[in-house]
Each structure stands twice: as C-alpha cells, then as structure tokens.
Amino acid sequence: MDDLLKPLDTKKSLEPGTIIRRVGSGKDQQGSFLEYDGSYNMILCNIIDMKAGTLLASVGVLKPQSSDKLYYYESSFGNNPVSEKAMKIIKNWPLYKKYVDLQDSIVNFIKISYVPEQIIDMSNKDSLQLLFVPVQQKFRIGRFAERRNVDRICKDTFMLWLESLNPGERINYLALIMQKKDHHPRFYSVGTKPHEKIAKMLENEMFNFDPTHGGHIKATGLKNGKRHFSVDAGSKYMGLGVMTQGEVNKMVANALTELYPEFEFTPAEGRGAL
Questions:
Q1: Architecture of the 5-73 domain
Q2: What stretch of H or E contains 131?
Q3: SS3 content of the chain, % helix, strand, coil (to 5)
Q4: Of 65, 86, 82, 59, whose CA–CA distance to 225 is shortest?
Q5: Short-list 191, 172, 185, CA closest to 239
Q6: Are 221 and 230 in contact (CB under 8 A)?
Q7: Counting Cβ atoms within 10 Å, is residue 229 exposed (0-12), middle (13-18) or buried (19+)?
Q8: Coil, strand or helix: which one is 23?
Q9: Residue ranges of domains in the chain
C-alpha cells in the first residue's frame, strides 16, 4: 500500500479535488472527491481501478462496504516540489507528444486523478500502464483509438474543462450555436482567460469555428444527482454583457444539456455565472 495514503476519518472535512482510495472487498479504486450528496455519500470523479489500471467511470457515488478501508492523499500537484518530475514523465510519453491538441486536456485529467508521487512511483516500478491506460480510455487514443471527427474532439476537450471545475470555480467560453436542423453546438475554453484571448487561441485549433456566443460557466455543486453548472452568455466580447436576454442564456444552457446530458445546466441572468 502507498506510504502516502492516510486513513480517512469519516468526520474529516475534505477539500474538493482530494484523491480518495477505497481498498477492500477485492477492490482497489481511487477517485477525486467532488462533494457529499444528501445522504453524505462521497461523489467522486475519474474513478480508476488501481488493480486493473482501467477507468471505471467519469463520475460515481462511493458507497463503501463494511469491510472496505478508506484512505486519502494529502498530496496534490499544487505547490508540490515533485510535480515537475512527474510532469516530465507525462510529457515524455509518446502519445502525449503525438496528440498535441489533447495535451492540455491530458494534463488536466491526470492532475485531477492522480498525485505526482504516484506517477513517479509507477515510473520507478515500470507500471506506468496504471496511468496511461486510463488516459487512453478517457481520450480514445492509442489502444482505444476510434475514428475521431472534429466535433467529437471539440466536445471531449470542453468536457474536460467542465470536469475540472470544483464548486465555486468557473471558466469562460466561446460557442457556436445555430438554430438549424442537424447543427451540433461547439464550445471552447482555455479556463478563465479573457474572451478575446480565447478567440485567438481557438484560431489555432483543428476544430476552429466562428463563435456566435460567449459567456461564463460556474460549478455550483449537485442537482438531481448530477454535477450542476450555472451558465450565462454575458460576454461583452461576443454579447451584451449584463444586458444579455434570459432567452439567450437559456438557449446556451439547452445547447450544453444537448451535448452533456450527464450534467445539469441552469441559465443565469445577465453575467450571473461570474
């Protein structure tokens, strides 16, 4: 068992993003803590089977059995002196080098799902498949490659931004939304950068599009058992700022729901998702 793991006291207050490990009943799984549900069960994202080295689910509820033991990692990528060493291992991976358009998303996924000491330990023990197989499964590359069209790449890339948000955190976005039959909305973000800079970076993407809307998305917790986001289309760069009409915000929220039915989206007034 990993020396970095600490026994999890049920009374401990957990910070979003803490890596939780469940061992017992023939299982060894870990995931990133999001929050507690109404029954005080833990909601985790990026749940990984650490025995098989496979990605089990993007989001799930942890309901441990009486024979299970729960642990947590105090470590994370933030302000960690070994993070740079772990990042070098990631960046030397051939598939990371191959899929330049996915590099930021791959790093986001790994930072959410693992602690840097794990990656270094996997490298030392020649067991990096425990890291790289789940990444391949998540992004459908390498052994799990499928024919990837630009709509799918755009959708998956933006989903990683949504999954990376803890309650209270937000991103800025640009979107292409047209009320036409068979039109597939597209969304793009590079975090909290201004919309003008997002537009410049979008020009270099393989799924580049001419945006029609822009605004903000904020993670607010859970709703109906799903991760919940507040959405507005109140970009001053692509819209009317605080004067944005409610129907426009609703249209954007509906477009997001169409793309990501596993999440809940609620339109906010004006720039209400800031």
A1: Roll (2.30)
A2: helix 129-139
A3: 35, 25, 40
A4: 59
A5: 172
A6: no
A7: buried
A8: strand
A9: 5-73, 83-144, 163-267
- Tell me, what amino acid is at 135? V
90, 110 contact by CB (below 8 A): yes
pTM of the model: 0.64
Do the strands 54-62 and 69-73 form a parallel or antiparallel pair, or are they unpaired? unpaired
Token pair 């109906």 in the structure block, residue = 224
List Cβ neighbours of 175 (8 Å cut-off, separation of 6 or more).
185, 186, 187, 188, 211, 212, 213, 214, 215, 252, 255
Q: Is the Cα dihedral 51, 88, 5, 165 positive or negative?
A: negative
CA distance 153 to 102: 9
Note down pLDDT in tens along the chain; length 274 residues.
577 899 998 667 788 899 999 998 788 999 999 888 777 778 888 999 999 999 988 878 787 777 889 999 989 998 799 999 999 999 999 999 999 989 998 999 999 999 999 999 999 999 999 999 999 998 889 988 876 678 888 888 898 889 888 889 999 999 999 977 778 899 999 888 899 999 998 988 878 999 999 999 999 988 888 899 999 999 999 888 888 889 999 999 999 999 999 999 999 987 877 7
Amino acid at 236: K
